[in-house]
Specification:
It is a single chain. The protein has 341 residues and is α+β, with helices and mostly antiparallel strands. The protein is built from 7 helices and 16 strands. The chain has helices at residues 81-91, 129-141, 202-205, 215-231, 252-269, 299-320, 334-338, and strands at residues 13-21, 24-32, 39-44, 51-52, 68-72, 96-97, 105-106, 111-113, 160-161, 164-165, 167-174, 180-187, 241-248, 281-290, 324-326, 329-331. The chain has a 5-stranded mixed beta sheet, covered by helices on one side. Strands 3-14-13-12-11 form a 5-stranded mixed beta sheet. Strands 6-7 form a two-stranded antiparallel ribbon. A hairpin with a 2-residue loop joins strand 9 (160-161) and strand 10. Helix 1 (81-91) packs across helix 2 (129-141) and helix 5 packs across helix 6. The longest helix has 22 residues, at 299-320. The radius of gyration is 19 Å and the shape is globular. The chain starts with 12 loop residues before the first strand and ends with a helix. The mean pLDDT is 95.
Length: 341
């Protein structure tokens, strides 16, 4: 049984730590690997990224597998959340062995951040190591194949998609070969997810299954967005983050190719994308449970599916988000403006 989430890739678990109230509107999300780790790669296309340990994922370098990937709010400050994940992994004796004692490990924890500073009202309220630890403990405590909460949770708590409220979304698919490909996305884009003339979501337009909002509903939504935008500060730095996962047995080079083509999924759902004030970053992870057929072109199905599930995850994250009206700003949700269209 599948749940249309990244946890449909057997062995992967997701945990959120959500921080709101008292000036906070932020959080951290962790994708935890099964015992033994997972192959990982990254592709960064935004002009203003905030990342940690991404160089370790270069196929030319020594680290073969990682045990967790961290997505976090708080801009570069929030990367401290990865320290809490590292500490938890060390306690579990999970990481790169660097000595004869099984406790002598160095966990490699790639991380990337979104800009959400001040969106809860306090610029200094941001994730820290304790937030990261809470997220990885939540992941470890979740049952295999569990549904993943979406919307304003974890790293998506303070996310914004253009002038709309953003959030976390996830989606999965199973190929004819039996290989599963899935994605988890934090939608925090400087660009828009809305087609301006109709109010349809770009991500649904490219899937060919959109229902257009009524004209009067769209006109009312545009007025509401103009009103709220006038109350907010100028658009700051933003970033859309994704983890694309598969149970296919990919090399590190193949995983890097998957991370690159998965950016196409962002470009279908957000316009414009990969700007200088974005930090758009995609991680690709592979658990290696299913072999690819021998021909190199068999990889094409995985690549195409990776982009598709990223687009669907963006749509689901935007649709699951809830409106925010607080000291840090006002961001209506798609649901508030357009209902269940």
């Amino acid at each position: 049984m599948t749940v249309d989430a990244i946890t449909d890739v057997a062995g992967l678990r997701v945990g959120h730590a959500t921080r709101s109230g008292g000036g906070l509107l932020t959080g951290t999300t962790v994708v935890l690997a099964p015992e033994g780790g997972m192959t990982a790669a990254v592709d960064v296309r935004g002009g203003g990224p905030g990342t940690k340990e991404t160089d370790a994922l270069d196929p030319r370098n020594v680290v073969e597998r990682v045990d967790a990937v961290v997505l976090t709010g708080g801009s570069a400050y929030g990367l401290d959340a990865a320290s809490g994940v590292m500490a938890w992994l060390e306690e579990q004796r999970r990481g790169v062995r660097v000595g004869p004692d099984p406790a002598h490990v160095v966990p490699v924890v790639p991380a990337a951040c979104v800009f959400d500073l001040g969106r809860g009202g306090d610029f200094r309220a941001r994730p820290d190591a304790a937030t990261g630890r809470a997220a990885v403990e939540a992941a470890a405590a979740s049952p295999p194949g569990a549904p993943v909460p979406q919307g304003c949770v974890g790293a998506g708590t303070g996310a914004v998609a253009g002038r709309l409220k953003g959030g976390v979304g996830t989606a999965s698919t199973v190929l004819e070969s039996g290989i599963t490909v899935a994605a988890l996305v934090v939608v925090n884009a400087a660009g828009s997810v809305l087609e301006p003339d109709t109010g349809a979501l770009y991500g649904e337009l490219c899937q060919g299954r959109v229902t257009y909002p009524e004209t009067r509903v769209h006109q009312a939504a545009r007025r509401r967005l103009d009103e709220t935008a006038a109350r907010n500060a100028p658009p700051p730095l933003n970033t859309t983050l994704a983890v694309v996962a598969t149970d296919a047995d990919l090399s590190r080079a193949q995983a890097q190719k998957l991370a690159g083509t998965a950016h196409d999924g962002i470009a279908r759902a957000v316009r414009p994308v990969h700007l200088m004030n974005d930090g758009d970053t995609v991680f690709a992870v592979a658990t290696g449970e299913r072999a690819l057929a021998g021909h190199p072109l068999e990889m094409n199905g995985v690549l195409a599916a990776g982009a598709d599930v990223v687009t669907r995850a963006i749509v689901r994250g935007v649709r699951a988000a809830e409106s925010v009206d607080g000291a840090g700003g006002v961001w209506p949700s798609y649901g508030e403006l357009y209902g269940r269209v």
